[in-house]
Amino acid sequence: MAITIERNETTPGSTSKVPSTIWGGPFILGLLIAVLGIVSLGATLVTSLVTAVFFGAMLTVAGVSEIVAAFRVRKGGGPFLLYLLGGVLSAVVGLFILVYPKAGLAALTLLLAGYFFASGLFHAITSVVDRYPRWGWDLFYGAVSIFLGIVVMAEWPISAVWLVGTMVGIGILFRGVALMAGSLTLRRAMRQVTT
């Protein structure tokens, strides 16, 4: 059996295809993810419902896994009841969200509103009390987060339609943009190395 080794020789006028495959794949993936983010922002209700169903499915799987882990831990003398009750709770909440995705979406929206409000309050108070360098930015973030929490709570049943889908769409869009920016930075760095 003979082994042949091919040499990749390039002439001065030609360029190698390897560098473009290194940064091109992540760029195209980022572009597709950014387009998916834009589509998600255009259909926030569908995105919200899909997110709620996905969240419910993940909670159900986690609950079942925790119940199985409870019986495995029981043999070793671990916290059986803690794992069992936690698993049952997760599975029941996940199944509830799967059966009633709109109610699950409303609950997720309330949780997000509470998170925005509490996080904003924490950032605002901490920045004013500590007055560390550039504390004004944290105060600004806190004020915006408090405002967003109040708006979501004030418009609550209606805000369930758009909030989760909008946040997921923005997250997907920025992830795609970050991938494209990272691949272009890699391309620039590779050009500097080759020159």
From TrEMBL:
Keyword hit for Ribonucleoprotein: no
Where are the membrane-spanning stretches? 21-43, 49-73, 80-99, 105-125, 137-154, 160-181
Question: Which InterPro entries has this protein been placed in?
Answer: Acid_resist_chaperone_HdeD (IPR052712), DUF308_memb (IPR005325)
Q: Which UniProt keywords apply?
A: Membrane, Transmembrane, Transmembrane helix
Matching Pfam families, A to Z?
DUF308
The reply on keyword Thylakoid is: no
Protein name as annotated: DUF308 domain-containing protein
Q: Which organism is it from?
A: Pyxidicoccus parkwayensis
